[in-house]
Amino acid sequence: SKDRLIERNDEKASRYAEKFLKSKGAKIIFDERITKVKGKKCETDKGTKLEADMVFFCTGISPNFEFMKKNYSSVLDEKGFVKVNEFMQVKGEKSIFAVGDIAGISVEKTAQNAKRQGEIVIRNVCALESGKDLQKYESKRTPLVISLGKWNGIFSHGKFVFTGIIPGLMKSAIEQREMWKKRKV
User: CA quadruple 10, 14, 19, 20: dihedral positive or negative?
Assistant: First the structure.
């Protein structure tokens, strides 16, 4: 729906992703949003009709908040994210926390940020139990490693963009390391 891919990243990363996808035969339509889906047929907000072998949505962060509307609508912002304070506590609640994609904070919605938020919550739950001061969550810009298949990727950190096989291998190594850590738990 934007004028380029991965628009929150540097333009070099966007151009690289577009070139890569087009080299694989992808047709990319910019500045349009799918508004109707019936089976394998789609239509955009500008009337473009498409037919696909398979349709799945990967359109960004849409929080799953419907179940909260009945009893917790007061803690939802206008987009459906949960309002939290600097300690990741749900606004107006002492012992309820929210982290990850649902948390209404201005930070890139990545697994590594959700993990950091979760670590702060663990410390803060322990602090609440022992009567100590809570620790603030401080957002920091972190590098992104974007996979473009097994052998290709994009490493992006601010204006620094590195593309090709090395970021692809980095992404695989990061995923393997994270899965290995989970096996040990």
Answer: positive
Given the DSSP bridges, would you call strands 144-147 and 153-157 parallel, antiparallel or unpaired?
antiparallel
Q: Find out whether 179 and 48 touch, Cβ atoms under 8 Å.
A: no
From CA 158, how far away is CA 67, in angstroms rounded? 36
Residue 55: how many other CB atoms lie within 10 Å = 14
Indicate the SS3 state at residue 178. Answer: helix
Per-residue pLDDT of 106-162, as tens digits, reads 888 888 899 999 999 999 999 999 999 999 999 888 888 999 988 999 999 989 999
**Which of 32, 34, 51 lies closest to 43 in space, CA to CA?**
34
* 128 token code pair: 């609440």
Cα distance between residue 117 and residue 124, in whole Å = 10
Q: Distance (Å, rounded) from C-alpha 144 to C-alpha 39?
A: 34
Q: Is the entire prediction scored with pTM above 0.85?
A: no
